[in-house]
Each structure stands twice: as C-alpha cells, then as structure tokens.
Please model this.
Amino acid sequence: MQVPNLKKELSTEELKNLGLKSGIEIHQQLEGKKLFCNCPTTVRDDTPDFKIKRYLRASAGESGKIDAAALAETKKQKYYEYEGYNDTTCLVELDEEPPGEVNQEALSAILQIAKLCKMQVVDQLRFMRKTVVNGSNTSAFQRTGLVALNGKLPGHDVGVESLLLEEEACKEIEKNNERTIYNLSRLGIPLIEIATAPDMNSPEQIAEVSEYIGMMLRSLKNVKRGLGTIRQDVNISIRDGVRVELKGVQDLKSIATIAHHEALRQYNLLEIFKTLKERKASVKGEDGKIHFQPINALKTTSSEVIKSGLQKPTGVVYGAKLSGFAGIIGLEIQAGRRYGSELSDYAKVMGVKGLFHSDELPNYGITEEEKQAIFLELECNPEEDAFIIIADKEEIAKRAMFAALERAADFNLRKEVRSDKQGGASSFMRPMPGASRMYPETDVKPLFIDMSEIEVPILLSEKIKDLEKTYGIAPDIAKRVLRDGLHLKDLHASYPDIKISFILDTYYGLPGTIKKKHGLDVDMLIHAPSLLQKLQAGEITKDSFTEILLLLAQEKPVDYSLFMPVSIDSLREEITKIVLTMKDAPLGAIIGKVMGTYKGQVDGKILSDLVRELVNQ
Amino acid sequence: MELDKLPVHAKVLLEVGDRSYEGLMLPKEGDMIVIKLASGYNVGIHPKHITKSEILERPNLRTQELPILEQNKDLPKLKILHTGGTIASKVDYETGGVIADFSPETLITMFPELSKIVCVESKFLGNMFSDDMRFSHMNTIAKGILEGAKEGITKFIVTSGTDFLHYLSAGLSFILANVPVSVLVVGSQRSSDRGSSDAAMNLVCATQFLATTDFQGVGVCMHASTNDDQCVILPGVNVRKMHTSRRDAFKPINTTKIALVDYANKTVVLYRKLIQITADLPESISLLKEDLKIGMIQSKPNFFAEEILAYKKFDGLILLGSGLGHFPVTKVDEFCQEHERILEALGELAQLMPVLMSAQALYGRVHMNVYAPARALQEKGILGHGSSMTPETSYMKMAWALSLANNETLPRLLLENRVGELDQIHMDEFY
Model:
C-alpha cells in the first residue's frame, strides 16, 4: 500500500518554494459611543441586570443561498442567552430597535486611515448585514460597510485591500452544547477592519507589518487601548493549497510559527490526499451516500469515554468504515495533530467531545479484541481499511458522524476559518464564509462620503521622532508620553523653571523606584501635576517628591510645610556643629549624616557642597 | 458602454480614474450606480466618476429549486392566508423586489417545523405594508376564510404586517363572529430574512395553539416578551400595538390574554375559558362597505370646532376623548370662546352620523356621567358611555355596524357586546 511522504517541518527554503502567501486582517475597537446607538463603549464584566433568551436560524441571503458558515452553526440547534445592563444596554443591542445614525467620529477615524493609505474611497458607503449565526450578534448579522479599497501601507510594499467599518460582537461568557451565554456590553462597539493584500511571503514580514498597522491605528485619537481591543486574523495559503483564515492571533511573536505550521499542514494534507486517491480510498457507499451504523461490539465495553456516551439519554455508539484508509488517520500533519484531528474537529463542531479511529486503538479502554470485533462488524479489511467511532446522544452523534465522514470523503483542502492553538498548530472552527452571507442593511441609509475635511493623521512613529529630536528624550519614554497624552510644550510653559528631564523622571522614573523599593503603586497622572505645581511655586523641594508620594500611596495625610525649602544660610551654623563633632569621620559619612538630617528640605547637591566646603576649612 | 445600458445582474468592470471596481450590477438607486463586489459588499459609485465601463459577463438568471413536499395528511389541516408584512417576506435583494411565491412548499422550506404539527395549505392574497390595508382587503381575507371553511378547513392563520394588525384582527372578529372557525392573525417584528426573526416562533406557536386547542373565533399570536420562549395568544379585539419595534409590541387592553404557548416544550396554558361557536357555517357573511368614511379625532389643548366640522361629510366619527371621555367644551373664561362652538359642532355631527367616544388613555372605561362636560356631550348625542373598546376596535366596530345596520339599530349595535369587546368586568390585572 502506498504511504504518503510527510514532513515534520519545513526549511525557509522549502517554505519559499511552496509559495507561502499571507495577508492579515486587523480589527481595532474605537472609543466613544457605539456604531449605531449612543451606548458607551465600556466592556463590562460586573453582574448583569438582566438576561434574555433567543434562538437564531439560518436564513437565505440575497442570492437565495444559505451561507455555509451559517448553516454549520444552525445545525447545532442551540439557544443563546444575552446579559445586559439597565444603564448601558439599549434596545438596539437587544435587536428590539432599528439602528440609529452612524457614529460620525468612528467614520471620520476610518476615513483618516483611508487617506493615509491613499485608498480608493467609495462614493457611497452602504452598510451590509453579514450573517453571523453563532449568536454573537443578537440580530444574527454583523453590520459592516466597505469604506475604501486598493491602498498601500505607507513605507511598505504591501497593499491594503479593504477598509471596513463594522460592529463588534458580544463577548462570550460561557458555552456548552445547549447554549452560549454572551455579554451585550461589547456588542456594537465601532471596529475598524483593515485587510492587507496577500503580499507577505515570510513569517517575519507578517509580524513587522502587523506591528506597523497597530502603530498606525494607535495614531488615531479615539482608538481603544488594552487587552482585547485589537485582534488580528492571519490568512495563509501555499501555491497548491487554499486560503485559510487563522482567527484571533493574540501574540505577534507567534505569527511566524503559525504561518510555518499552516504551510506544513497544507503540504502534508495534500500528500495524504494524493495517497488516498492512489489507493482509491472511499468513504461513501456504492449509492454515493454516507453510511454509519450502531456498533454492537462496544455495548459492554469498559472504555469510560464510550460508556459515558452510551449512558446519556438516547445514547448510542456509531461506527463507519473508511475504505482504503489503513494507517492514514493516525499520521501526524502538524505538531501534536494527526489527520484524525482534522476529522475530529468537524465532529466536535456538532457537539461531541471527539472521535476514536482504528489507528489509535487499542487504547482509551478499548481492547484489541473489541477493535477486531468492530473491524468485523463494519466488514473492514484491517490491512486496508480504517474506521471511526463516536458515542453520544443519538441526534448529536448522528450529526457529528455525518460531519466527520463528509470531511473524510472530500480529498481536497478546504477554505476554513481555524483557531490558533498553542505551539503553532490550529484547529477547524467553521467553513470560510462566502459572499452569500452578505445582504444589504436596509435600516441604515446609504451615506455619501465627504473627504474634504478629513486630515491625514500624524503617525505615532513620527510623533516619537519629533519628541526625540525636540526634547532629546529616549524613544520608550516618548512612546509613554504620547500614550498618556502629555503635551511637553504645555508642561514646559506651566513649569518654566523645571527641566523637562526632571518632569519626565517624575512621571516615568519615580513610580518605578517607589514600586521597587517599597512595593507601592502610585499613579503619576494624578499626583504629578500637583507636585510639579508646588515645586514651581517654591512650596516644596525637588528631593521631597519620593517621601510625599510614599505618604500619598499609603493614603496618609501630607503636611507639605515639612517639605518647605529651607535656605542653606539658615542651616550653616547647625551643619558646622555636625561637621565639627564628626571631624575624624570620613567625608562620605559626614555627608550621609547631614543629608539624612536635612533631606527633602534642601537640595542634596547644595548640602554636599556645603559639607565639602566646611570640611576643607 | 453607456452606463444606462449595463444590465442588472451583469458582471461589470467600472473604471474610476486609474482604479476600478468589478462586481455584479445592482438596480440603480437615484443617481448612484450600485454594484456588489466579489466579497459580498455593495458599494455606491457616482456615475460622474466612472470613466469607462465594460460588461464582463451577461446576467445569469438563477432558478431556485424547491424540494418536493410530502405532507402528513393525517395531521390537522391549516390554511395560511398571506397578506404581507415581514413574517414571510422573501425579499429578492438583487432586484429589490419581493418574491410573491407563497406556496406551501416555500412556507415549509422556510419553516419546516410546521409540517410536523399540521398539514399546510396556503393562499397568497397580496404583499403589502399593513398600513396600506383597506376594507376591501379585509373583505378579501374574510372571504378567503369562508371559502376555506366551505372546503372543510377550520383552522386559519392570517399573516399580516404589524402596523394595522390590530385593525385587521378586530375587523375579522366582527365580520366572522358566529362563524365556526379558528383564526389567528400573526405578524413579526423582525423580518424573516434575518436569523433573529421572530416570524418562525410566532408561526409555530400559532400553529401549535390552533392544532391542539378548541379555540374558536379570531385572535392574535405574537411574542409574549423579548425572550424567544413564549408566544401570547390575544383576543382579536382590544389588542394593540404598543411599541414601534419590540417583538412583544402587542398587548391586551382592558382584557386579558387567552393563552401562552411555550415554544420549546410546545405546551399551551389557557388563561380564559374558550368560547364555543355552535352556529352552522353560514352561506355568506356580511362584509364591510368598502367606501365607508369614518373619522378619528383626538381631544387636545387649543382644539378648534373646525377640526370636527371637517368630518361633516363622513359616515361616522370616533373620538379619542381625554380622561373618562371628554372634549374641551366648557367656556371657563374669555380664552375659551371656542369651546362652545366645539360642543355645537359635535352636536351637529352627532345629528348626521354616529359619533362614538373612546379614551385616549387606552386603559379603562369611558364614563360620561362623572363630569359635566361629558354629560353635555351625551346630551348632544355622543355615544360610548361605558365603552371599554380601544380606539381601533371602536373604529372597526363602527365600520362593521355601519355596513350592517340602519340608523335606528346602529346605536344599539355599537354598544352591545359581540365578541368580548365590551366586557362588563374590568379586573385589576388588565392594567
């Protein structure tokens, strides 16, 4: 029997030869109000005020076709629960009121990006309904509009294919086979989706471009910051393969590994399909239909997994013969994932925990005898054929069996949306949605786009360079200045006698020192202005900042009069006494003593200069 | 290629300066050229920006195949009459038109659950916004029901848009009173082309209710709350759309629900004793006179007699009185000169036509004995004392009564309970 020639990894050279192509889609949330209502964009996780229950069904799109992704979801026959808040959830999120006017600030933000990337902006923005039947939108669709296409990423040889303005989906809270619980606070947050052309052909390039786009988006005034506010999907294909979308890649660093593993998966699957064709393998019966049957051989099995499936109401164990598949299902196609994992993913989508296949048995409590009995029952030739088995409630097991066998019968790569797993491998989530999932959002009037007042945003990278040049500060500090929205020019005007370097150290150096030494957190965006103001007014000394902050961090009262600057002349006499009593001590010790006594009241340098002077006398 | 000659559904290439759009040509909207890109997105392009256009592929008209339908003939028969609205809207978004196919096959394809409960027949009567409905349409629906009943069907669903749904249900209630049929008027507040539509659940619950209970008469079936868990069966009269957009927009006014139907468990809980119609199926029914003109006018500050007199040539008038059934008819001071004229005008109209009072407060009874202004109105011949009909039910009852009665019997007909619209008892739970 033919055996496919699979690879464990691909070298850079091999990757290049396979024709790796990749594009990315970045989704960035915007701050302010929601896209089609006036609810705030705060994502909440506190106790909800109410919960509602809904079912969703697949419906035909514009062309009369039901979208593959939508159908896959409704086959699961689930219901959804939505949690909301009396003060921040309105009828629009509940799908009980038509959408309001488009959020103009969000529109303006996305148009700035369009201008920056020199894109072809549509004359009229027409919002569409993109069918989403996993329940993450109460309306069962996501409102999305194509704003611009065909641009170029500034300074890169990478095209920007499209720019979309869309609604964010609900946040998933909990999920099981019967229902999913969602929180409504995230639903409807404006989202910019920027999609590049598949112009990247190395994993490193993908990472660099993705970082650049992130920076570009953060150059806008109203982007949301923090974990989960930006998400990226990576599209990957190899020359003979298909385009696969990897969802929600959180970590830029992992992109390289993911791209590598996807190329490897596609390469290995193509090899397996070639072998299966050569072997004339088949899954369907002579009638061209998919068949499976209850397995009697496992009725008294001691396998816990099978037993728990059988014990469910209407529980059953189904099996099916895969003719010509001997030795194939157990082959590894990606780190930790076998060809069987691909089939199992399709079954899992239908609500089962997984499947067993003949290549991995005996195991999991299924004995060699039972395995042989199954072969016999399914009329398999163990030398040539393989089988898969699934145990669960009858309805679920049927759907899962059908899904897995239908995938096994297809010797082609599929356009899929996959979720990234640790270590670079990925698992099937749903079929790649097609154009038939889109139809017009007739509740939103088409919008004429006016670019005349749209200004190109100044890039964060340029602002950083500018700060470096003007104030001579380090790039990482410049980044933080921009992130916190500090205006150095204004700060300089407010505190003309204080050096910019001291101001920046107050904001970004001191908190670190205090944290390190005392384990306390201080928020300088709150405290710095008042300290700097007092310093400028001559009410406290520079050296008192740490002590005052320590008190503030511990929420203790501060008596600022203790930190009043004292004139050095008024202390001369007292310090002379100290120097005289310590005249035999080393200079360092004397300075230490004096500093300890008057620290915070007089500038340290002035104190040490005075001690030196007195000692020398 | 001239832009006007680009056929709808053709695959086209449109050049805009040095860039281009490729996609499916959709019907023009005003000046804008609209095309669907391969990604599924529609975009609008101003023709003045298009420098060149080209047809890449001629339109390829699709035909949709429907499965051959095998229904279980042992199940109760149910006839669905479709009048429009979002409940079974199949909008062809490519052309912007509405698909007028309302065969049982289409229905069962859209709502496969129905075929497990009943054996469906269907009739397509039209597709309109319910606010375009006239008495002629209501007559057609009533005739359709009688026709079905003569063929031996007793269970009917009338699908309708929701805006005038309560007028339709009230109209049918009066026309079909004493006809031994069960009719539910069903609407939906989210169109059936979207996955979150309430259409399927409303239809399934209505079907379940009709198939498993002895209900007779006319009712309404809609969502009981914003949740997809229960539908409420409401009487055809004194029911009202109380929200512009929510699924549970329909509420009983001065009455109570008939039943709740659980969607998941398919169980029915009755809240009322069901009425039994013992009469035989009549040969014909009295329909609404289609040219009737009935006015409806609301009491408000700064009212003018002229507003009433505008209805002089009408056949009847419904008043939405303030409070217990009042109009500004008292001359309190020099600012209220007009009020005497209003009283005169109302009196004048009451001589010409039936003028029936209902309450703009909606909930509660009209009571025209309590205050002097209403007593004055009664003296002028305004009817309606004691009525608990909603303005819409009053309107449809007036239409029915005017179609049926002569001037002498009319007042009695208007204020005599026929299908529960004038219940004698108001319970605390009604409000």
In short: Chain A has four domains: 12-276, 296-408, 460-563, 568-616. The CA atoms of residues 443 and 597 of chain A lie 74 Å apart. The longest helix of chain A spans residues 255-278. Chain A has a mean pLDDT of 89.
